[in-house]
Amino acid sequence: MSGPVQHAGMRASNLALVLRAIAEADAITRARLSTVTGLTKSSISGLVTDLVAGGLVEETLAPPSRDRGRPGTMLALHRQGVAGLGLEVNVDYLAALVVDLGGTVRYRHVATRDNRGRPAQEVLAELAGLAEAATAAAAEQRLGLAGACLAVPGAADGTTIVRAPNLEWAVVPVELPLPATAYGLSIENEANLAALGELWFGTATPRDFVHVSGEIGIGAGIVVGGELFRGAHLRAGELGHVILDPDGPPCSCGGRGCLERLAGLDAILQAAGAPSRLELERRCRDGDDRALGAVADAGRLVGVALASVTNLLDPDAVVLGGVFAALAPWLQPAVADALADHAAKPELLVSSLGPDAAVRGAAGAVVRQVIDDPAKFLGWRG
């Protein structure tokens, strides 16, 4: 049995090697693909044939050139065949988004909801409706789903949300009426997915950075060398539970004086006397002193917490995401001042994805599964 197993493993590895090279190049010739991967032209030919037949790669004509005769054939990702479904449950909204194999958004829907205190199954039933609508929209565009990934504001194990303190959920199994797919459903922390979304789809994002997701809670995704750092117990990035005031207000984690209790959206709205994020932004644009002061105070606290993180990890950049991206014109200067006061000198960036970062990262995670393990997809399709 060792011969066939080894052969299957080698084929799977080579399929992934070829598909990753095509994805990174955007468009590439067979000859160049052989050079980049180190595989023989005959091996490339067979592997490409399988990827084309499986709907993952398409052949296109190279642009005409004066230096050659007949135009050659280029290989590129097939953006009309396979897609990833990203879903998100957050404290104040639900989201669904579909991206094709090239990462282009093909469908997006966000439903504003206050999910705190709502029964988990009620929220998941509503999410199922969003998932069904997204699946139908993908089918209308003749995109087949390869899988789905759900972003949640907490920790997950398999297809169970283990804990989501700001939703008041614990040990919630997730079952959604999704079509059968090659990679099924996975669940991941929203801050981690937001960081991956920024890495894959953001603008000029370095390979070493900390992405700060500012919402009701505050989370961070840590990317080192282009890879997500999860920590030994999958708890890396709990920035919202960095303690800034041991005698401060109690937090849902059981501690006191955590950053998210002092500088999360609820704390900012309360300090500003604003009923909603949109009203807070309006007041800031209008120059309201109370609103501007509340945002600046939160920015200073975020900067103090980030100073410790950046002095420890030494990332190239910190990326402000989520609500913090929307408030960046008024929040960013205070964050920058606090970082400078503590001798921390990362580049301070604002997310180009904003509140979509996590759901984009969720959909992108499915696409990455296809690119990293196309043999599983081709085997599922038969």
Chain-wise SSE layout:
Blueprint: H1 2-25, H2 30-37, H3 41-53, E1 57-61, E2 73-77, E3 82-90, E4 93-100, E5 105-112, H4 120-140, E6 144-152, E7 155-157, E8 160-164, E9 169-173, E10 185-189, H5 190-201, E11 209-214, E12 218-224, E13 227-229, H6 259-263, H7 265-272, H8 277-285, H9 289-313, E14 317-322, H10 323-326, H11 328-341, E15 347-350, H12 357-372, H13 374-381
Task: Describe, in plain words, how this protein is organized in 3D.
It is a single chain. It is globular, with a radius of gyration of 23 Å. The strands form four sheets. A five-stranded mixed beta sheet has the order 5-4-3-6-10, with helices on both faces. It is built from 13 helices and 15 strands. Helix 1 (2-25) packs across helix 3 (41-53), helix 5 (190-201) crosses helix 12 (357-372) and helix 12 (357-372) packs across helix 13. By secondary structure, the protein is of the alpha/beta class. Residues 1-5 have low confidence and may be disordered.
Structural class: alpha/beta
What is the CATH domain class of the largest domain? Alpha Beta
Distance, first to last CA: 22 Å
User: How many DSSP helices?
Assistant: 13
Helix content: 40-55%
Strand order of the largest sheet: 5-4-3-6-10
